[in-house]
Amino acid sequence: MDIDKIKSKVKKLLALSASPNENEAAAAIEKAQRLMDEYNLSKSQCLYGTHSVPATKRLSNWRMVLSNAVAWLYCCETYRTLKGERIFFGESFEAFMAAEMYRYLSKTIERIAKQNIRKNAKRPYREKYKLGIASRLATRIREMGALASWAPTREHRSLAVKTALDAETTVETKTVKMAGTGSDAFRRGASAGNAVSINRQTTGHGGRYIEAR
């Protein structure tokens, strides 16, 4: 049987193990454990997955700000590999949505910067402008996420994801340097970030995503 189907089945059984019906819960956890043993799978492997975004040449502060905000919304962890790929780790569907959202918003920031900044502007100015957009979007994402119906469970789920990632690999974290936030470029970027339309929606599968256009 396809290993992904086994993981999906185990995930559903683990969800059933939280049933208020004690007999149903016990049967579900027993079957889940039997499948994990048979296919040499861990609970983490069945519950969580990763989705990546293509590598970028440089480690940019604005990308870190944006990825951290999106990861927070979807209860994921995010990090950058040595090859420059941006990874989102969490529940499979949530990690997928986080990667898609990050990809879309990062392209939006690049597009806005290209439209609004003169061609001969120096790189530091461009980066501060993009950081302004990303910072404003991050604030708006967190404001909306704090009001969402799933907000009360976010801390618990995020901690579970972080614990699972820590058990699998060692990820080096970096502090974002927010130099230049008082510059004209940053203020212009933040203003442009207000103009990006962001809508929160809920899918029929219980997944969450933000759509920007």
Distance between the termini: 41 Å
Instruction: Provide the low-confidence segments as ranges.
Output: 200-213
What is the H/E string?
HHHEHEEHHHHEE
What's the overall geometry? elongated
Helix percent band: 55-70%
Largest sheet, strands/sense/barrel = 3 strands, antiparallel
Strand order of the largest sheet: 1-3-2
In terms of structural class, how would the helical and strand content be classed? alpha+beta
Strand content: 5-15%
How big is the Rg?
20 Å
Number of self-contained structural domains: 2
Q: What is the count of DSSP helices, taking H or I runs of 4+ residues? A: 8
User: Would you tell me the overall average pLDDT?
Assistant: 85
Question: What's the number of extended β-strand segments?
Answer: 5
Give structural attributes.
single chain, 213 residues, 2 domains, two-stranded antiparallel ribbon, 8 helices, 5 strands, 60% helix, disordered C terminus
Task: Describe it.
The protein has helices at about 5-15, 20-40, 45, 60-75, 90-115, 125-145, 150-170, 185-195; strands at about 50-55, 75-80, 85-90, 200, 210. The protein is of the alpha+beta class. The chain folds into 2 domains: about 5-40, no CATH class; about 50-210, no CATH class. A 3-stranded antiparallel sheet has the order 1-3-2, with helices on both faces. It has a two-stranded antiparallel ribbon with strand order 4-5. Helix 4 (about 60-75) packs antiparallel against helix 5 (about 90-115). It is elongated. The termini are far apart. Mean pLDDT is about 85; it is low at about 200-213.
